[in-house]
Amino acid sequence: MSQSLTDWLRDSRLVVVEIQRELGRVRVRSAADGCSDLTCGAQAVVVDETGTTGNLDTLNPGDVIKIATEAGQPDRLVVVRRVWDELSSPEF
Questions:
Q1: Domain count within the chain
Q2: What one-character DSSP code corresponds to residue 89?
Q3: Which of 3, 63, 76, 85 has the fewest C-beta atoms lying within 10 Å of its C-beta?
């Protein structure tokens, strides 16, 4: 059975649980409620909803992200929705 677009979008999104900036790690939770740690290289870039780039300092617990990987390590974390937008969402 093929996966619907809605299911694919839900499954490709991760929620930031914890950021260990000094170690270059981000703990994320998947749609299946499983947590995993991402080890980001020094060149990892965070891209927010305005297209502005930054580093792990721009992430917040609760942000919804997707990952673009290269050579097995995340090199771009794309913020899909900020934690503060979650509470103002019409879905809430």
A1: 1
A2: S
A3: 3
